[in-house]
Structures are given as structure tokens and as C-alpha cells.
Amino acid sequence: MARPRVCPECGQPAFEGGEVRLHGHGLVRRQQRGPPAPGQAPATEVLLCRRYLCTGCGAVLTVLPASAQARKHFSGAAIALALTLWGLCGYSAAQVRAQVSDWVHTGAAARGWRSLARWAAQVAGGGLFPALGVRAQGSPQQLAARAAQALCGTCPPEARPQPLPHQAFAGACHVS
Ligand SMILES: [Zn+2]
Q1: Cα-to-centroid distance, 10 and ligand 1 (Å)
Q2: Backbone torsions φ then ψ of 22, nearest 5 degrees
Q3: CB neighbours (10 Å) of residue 152?
Q4: Distance, CA 31 to ligand 1 centroid (Å)?
Q5: In DSSP terms, which residues pair with 78 in a beta bridge?
Q6: Cα gap 111→157, rounded to integer Å
Q7: What is the rounded CA–CA span in Å between residue 87 and residue 144?
Q8: Residues contacting 17, CB < 8 A, separation 6+
Q9: How far is ligand 1, taken at its centre, from the CA of residue 4, in Å?
Q10: DSSP 3-state of 132
């Protein structure tokens, strides 16, 4: 959670001419949801994220830890796990949600999980895990399968003997 080297909004360096241009701007709490590992109970973790204020353009930057995805409530690993269970392991959307989300849903909302199709489309469009370079078309579940394969492909060697959900979970910690 280090100070960014440049402001992503205006490109100004954090330090210039001996002056600090990106100033510490306090901490914000951010919720991050998902299980700590595949098969473990999902939970909500509160992360403290550091903020910086750019004196050049006035932008306030929130620096996320590597485990977090911008604009996502779930950890990257939790999203990878969900896509793998749904796309490759034959879980229903409701079964996936029970593994990944600690929020309890009842009634009509309990039957599916629209986040899955949205995440799959975002990976296939390059908006989520862009470093994977996935470009695919197909049904939401086919896109999830493609994303899951790519995530499994990025897992470190020590995770390769493990089941696919573990591979994807570990892989998500190595891509952005
Ligand atoms: Zn700026």
C-alpha cells in the first residue's frame, strides 16, 4: 500500500523538485468479502486503505492491497473461485454463492447469482483481470469457464497439483 509513483489521473510524479506532490490523505475502510481459502467459510474482512491527495489535479487516490479488485466488494481470489466452481466444476449459481458469499439471500434472490455472469463478461471483455488477456465470446457460463482456465493457468507451480478451485484461487493472487 505504498504511495503511487505518479498520479494516475494527471501523471504528475509523487515527488518533484524535492517536493511531495501526492500527500497522505488518511485511511478509508473497505469491505472485502470471500472465503480465506477454497472450502472455508466466507466472511467479510475490513481492510484499511491509504488515500493520497494529488496537489496537481486534486484527485484523491485510494491504494488497494494486491488482493483487492477496484470497484469490487469481493476479493480477486473469491471471484476466481466463483468463476471456477460455476464454469468448470458444475456448481449451480446458488451453490457457488453459498461457497463464496457470506450474505444470506432468501426468496427469489436465493435461486441465482447475477454477479457470476457479470464477472464472467467483465473478464472476457478485459475489464476484470485484464492481465490475463482473455478475449472470449459465448454464454455466461462458457465465459466463466474460459476465465477460470486462464486463472488456473497463472497459478504458481506449488499449486498445480491441487484441485482447480485452489489453482484459480492461487492464480488470482498473481494477476491483476
Ligand atoms: Zn493528479
Answers
A1: 4
A2: -110, 110
A3: 24
A4: 26
A5: none
A6: 36
A7: 5
A8: none
A9: 11
A10: helix
Distance from the alpha carbon of residue 77 to the mean position of ligand 1, in angstroms: 30
Please calculate the CA angle 5-11-14 and round it to the nearest 5 degrees: 35
User: Which residues line ion ligand 1, judged by CB < 5 Å?
Assistant: 7, 9-10, 12, 54, 56-57, 59
As a whole number of angstroms, the distance between CA 143 and CA 87 comes to 8
Closest CA relative to residue 168, chosen from 33, 36, 154, 130? 154
Q: How far is the CA of 102 from the centre of ligand 1 (A)?
A: 37
pLDDT band at 176 (very low <50, low <70, confident <90, very high): low
Name the band, by pLDDT with cuts 50, 70 and 90, for residue 150: very high
Determine contact, residues 166/159, Cβ cutoff 8 Å: yes
Interval 59-73 mean pLDDT = 86
Q: What is the pTM of this model?
A: 0.83
Percent of the residues in the chain that have a pLDDT greater than 70, as a whole number: 95
pLDDT at 15 over 80: yes
Closest of 142, 171, 36 to residue 163, by C-alpha: 171
Q: What's the confidence (pLDDT) of residue 6? A: 92
